[in-house]
User: What shape does this take?
Amino acid sequence: MSWLPKSPKARRRLWVVAAVAPILALAVGLSLWAMRDSVTFFFSPSEVTVENAPAGRVVRLGGLVEAGSVERDGAGEVAFVVTDNLASTRIVYRGDLPDLFREGQGIVAQGAFQPDRTFRATQVLAKHDENYMPREVADRLKETGEWRPEDAAPARAGAPTT
Assistant: This one.
């Protein structure tokens, strides 16, 4: 075997590497396979398609709550529309909304699309003060040209800026 090193020490190292490499590759592959369900993708309403957010797959959907779209029923279920000013998506949520949830507010909802393409949220997150908007929502608004910096408060001293 001319491709093997002539030194016995080098041959031993080559065999160790040849034995460890597949085991390491298998461990990495199994780890990635096990984590595939824990990854949650973020979409804005204009990016949501059946291909990238199929029914039943847990995703995060963010945007602004459309004015006049919030509907509450007596059973504790809330339906509202989230928009990025290019597209809109109806969200249905059962539970208590954050105290700062309101129309025109930037929110991020985590949940899954139903077969009828209604988004069933399991969690709704809203901003925590007047100076905050979820980074994903702000980035999507900037990309679509809908970002209005005059509406955003100036960054506080010592606060990280993006």
